[in-house]
Design goal:
By secondary structure, the chain is mainly alpha-helical. It has one domain. It is built from three helices and no strands. The chain is globular, with a radius of gyration of 13 Å.
Amino acid sequence: MARTVGLGNQDFEVVRLERYFYMDKTRFIQEWWESGDIATLLERPRRFGKTLTLSMVEAFFLSVTRGEENYLKGFI
């Protein structure tokens, strides 16, 4: 079944719950976390998913603090 593209949607929770098409950027969390950088600059062109990526990171870490295992399982 084809997924709908949620154009302009910047809330990862909505994208996840509505099962919109999403380019998987979860590896970003691991690379970013393991880099140990003090600050991270997300420099990308307009409409390139910066806000949605940060929303995904926020949702991921909130789920970890709530103890929700396998938060992204079944979505990606």
